[in-house]
Amino acid sequence: MASSGNVAAERAFRYSRDETQVRSIVHQDIAHPYAAPSIPGRGEWLSGAAATISYGVITVCKDSAATIRRAIDSVFQQALLPRQYVFIDGGSRDSTVSIIEAALAEAEHRGVRTDCTLIRQHNEGITQAWNIGLNSVTADVVCILNSDDWYDPGTIERVVARFMRYPKAEIVLGSGRYLDPSDDAAPRICRPRPFFVLPIAMTVIHPACFVRREVYARVGLFDERYQIAADYDFIYRCRQAGIRFVRAPEVVVNVLRGGFAETHMALGWREVAQVGRRHARLPVLSAAGAIARRWLKR
Asked: What is the pTM of this model?
């Protein structure tokens, strides 16, 4: 059996930032990067004390034409712009790619200085796509924004303020606003739960997790055995590694319900149970949580 160090080294090799290596090993086509000119745009680069913190955004998409533009606009409308924005497209057959290209061209025309890259992936799943994105980001803080979600105005300012207030923080956890596209019900606000709940259920809202890049070097990338529970496994490993979390009380992201996890609930239940058995000190708690989720259909 390979040691954990060898496995981590193998993953780092597979997802090298060298574009030729990524193309040959992961079988991708890498689109040209959109390098915008260095002139002021709608937002500004981090200034003053906040200039010590840069951030990059990763958005994974496939056939997301109905929602991708809203996600992109929510990033470029932040007062503090990202250093990098990486898109990984899993083989869209609709107009997703052309919408991304149009949005990036408009941003470039406005003078946005963000380094934007579009990577075309041969649909090996969202978990692998996250890992490809992580090996493309060199900024201090990594933000993963789903293609059907979007940030509130001022999100990044709040997150950066947390990192500045707590310099030893490695992950900032915000709250999310969950919306159901099929009805007019009031949004449901979800906040990070205490970590003692972790053996039973996911305690954080993944799109509201803002992670220092070096955390992935310490803990490892997302485990590609999981299609749905990879974020749950990652948070578990962060806790076991002693990563420092800081909670932000504000709602920072809007999450559209009805995604892959909600349409593949049985798979999600199995994966969450596997993660619990793998990491929990008392596996019986994870088993109880799995039974409760099936009963509640959550």
From this structure: 0.79
